[in-house]
Amino acid sequence: MDRSTHGDGPTLTKARFQMFLIGLASLAIAAAFLGLIWNYLIALFMAAVISILAAPVYQWVFEKTGERKNLAVGLTLTGLAVCVLIPLIAIIILSAHQAASVAANLTNWAKSVDLHSLEGSLPAWIPFKVDFAAIGSTVVTKITEAAGQIADFFVSVLSQATKGTVSFFLNLFIMIYAMVFFLPQKPNVFRQLLSHSALPHAVQHQLADRVISISRATIKGTFLIGVAQGFLGGFGFWMAGLGGAAFWGCVMAVFSIIPGIGPGLVIFPAVIYLAVEGHMIAAIGLAVWTVLVVTTVDNFLRPALVGRDTKMPDLLVLISTFGGLAAFGAVGLVLGPVIAGLFLTIWSILEEYLRSDGLAEQPEPAEEDQSP
User: Fold this and answer.
1) Which pTM does this prediction carry?
2) What angle do CA 125, 126, 127 make, to 5 degrees?
3) Beta carbons of 265 and 296 less than 8 angstroms apart
4) Where are the bilayer-spanning segments (predicted)?
5) Cα–Cα distance between 191 and 201 in angstroms, integer?
6) Residues 110, 273 contacting (CB under 8 angstroms)
7) Is 187 helix (H, G, I), strand (E, B) or coil?
8) What does the buried/exposed string (b/e) look like for 127-166 if buried means 16 or more CB atoms within 10 Å of the residue's CB?
């Protein structure tokens, strides 16, 4: 009896040591592999996200083409390139060119504003007319500084998407090539990756569903609503005779993540600028266009497109989006909210784990909830 017990000790120790070596080797090889593909992780992530969102389109094309996989993939990718990718790249390049001169134009305008002549044209009943020059100078300076900082921020973001042409097109090629393999995959790539983890199946499904739902909501919300509001706002800028309409349209598209007032944060200073310059008709027209058209688009589209897919507070969506932009460039519009959503999800899972003393005991509360 003692010998068998004593004999089991070395065997157990050897098994543990072998498991430790296997785990250590796995971590080392995984770290080396991660280092190899590190520069292309964002391209692969976007390929996975777009493939999941385009899966219904691919499935429809797949059925219409007699279930020919390669033809269906080719037609789906071609449609995405023509309808989304090419126009998006063209807008980014145009915006980057316009952004380079926006900050300089704002500074020159602030120096050229003649507030004293504008003060003389104001009605006598305005209470602050006497101090208008001093107050107006401060207001113009602050608005110019804020607009200049916004312009500089988006210049840096857009430059990340346009600088290094070879790197940009290499990542674009990798993303498209990866989609060739990701589109037909069932289950999707996120579920397949999580299936190789040691996480319980319930947690795997939660994390995969979270990535998909947030990505879908971000694409539908930020992209579609942003494109609509950015286009309409940029069109309003162009009609009002303001320069850099494409650039400011992109800025409004990003600010559209703030429900209701997003584009107004960009358009309101533009209305003030037009009024200070004496273009009152253009200022009033732009203000009316914003209230009746640009803002209304958000009220109609957001509930239908986004719904409650994100399940995140608007403040967290805002912070994670701008944080993603600063950290990852334009891709951060999607990647930032996804990381924030995963952060909330994993902490929610941890909370459930601590309350239930183990994820395996989760089905018990479900039975209690069903009872009257």
Assistant:
1) 0.64
2) 105
3) no
4) 20-38, 44-61, 73-96, 164-183, 222-240, 246-268, 280-297, 317-350
5) 10
6) no
7) coil
8) eeeeebeeebeeebeebbeebbebbebbbebbebbbeeee
